[in-house]
Amino acid sequence: MLEFCTQGFKGHAVKYSPFFDSRIAVASAANFGLVGNGRLYILGLTPEGIVAEKWFDTQDALYDLSWSESHENQCVVACGDGSVKLFDISLNEFPVQSWQEHKREVFAVHWNLVAKDTFCSSSWDGTIKILRIYDLRTPASVSNHLTTSISLQASPQGLAVPPSEALTHDWNKYRPSLIAAAGVDQLIRTFDIRSPAQGPVTVLSGHGYAIRKIAWSPHLSDVLLSASYDMTCRVWTDGSTLGVADNHGSGQQGRELGIMGRHTEFAIGVDWCLFGAEGWSASVGWDERLLVWDVRAVIGQ
Question: What's the CA dihedral at 285, 218, 226, 4 to 10 degrees?
């Protein structure tokens, strides 16, 4: 297991580069993200361990990040001041673009894997913004980059929507109709969007506190990772490769495969490496540590 200390900054998100197996980015914040600066770390995996290739300081906390799918040196970050910033790691100090489209903290960003000039952001202001990178010489205005704004408060057919306590979700990499979601009730649920009325396909339990992040494996269709406020990261199978129904005769019997308990504070972010052996992953937490570890080493523990 490799380790890097983000001294003075609590890790909120970690992402492997989609272009290089030895490059990892971490979005972090001082003072638990409540007040103060943020820092984007660009880290390299070397034979001597994890080294900081570069970092960028921001005036407010960073809560999430996403690498560009079309440019190996660019990534966007979600900021506590309501902005989304684009950094080019071949340059120094400042972002190459900043969009101020949200009215409150931006908590998540994600780059489109198909339309690779497009990414989305979601915020505590209750909206999702979909932006497109055209020419960075044009002003960062709605007319130039924002393509869609979606309200999360909209009610279908005039019906009231109860507050949701989901904190994270992720699409399965192999089954395009399958999505997993988790949150404060400590459970991971998978859903087939082709049959939304049937309820969850699988329910996975084991965490002792809220689940902050989940990520499906890019290598195995049934495996996913989770990071929780109980300070653990856990490996799961949704049971789809086992072909066994649960005790009630409906759904699949998923189960926990292993636990990584090396974090000493809330585990907040987790991600898989796209390259090489199928088990390498990274996690960050409020203990100011990035851990790079092999999932296969914890299966069965």
Answer: -20
In angstroms, the CA 266 to CA 198 distance is 33
76: tokens are 């966007």
The H-assigned helical ranges of the chain are 142-145
d(CA 182, CA 279) in angstroms, rounded, equals 22
| Residue of 53, 5, 1, 49 whose CA lies nearest to 25 | 53
Task: Report percent pLDDT > 70 for the chain.
Answer: 86
Q: Is the dihedral of CA 259, 263, 267, 272 positive or negative?
A: negative
SS3 letters across 163-227: CCCEEEEEECCCCCCEEEEEECCCEEEEEECCCHHHCCCEEEECCCCCEEEEEECCCCCCEEEEE
Q: Which amino acid is at 128?
A: I
Other C-beta atoms lying within 10 Å of the C-beta of residue 161: 10
- State both tokens at 167: 């904190």
Sheet-wide strand order for 84-88:
62-67, 74-79, 84-88, 97-99
Give the total residue count for the chain.
301
Q: Which of 56-65, 149-158, 224-233 has the lowest mean pLDDT?
A: 149-158
Task: Give yes or no for residue 152 having a pLDDT over 70.
Answer: no
In this prediction, residue 248 carries a pLDDT of 44
Tokens of 263: 């974090």
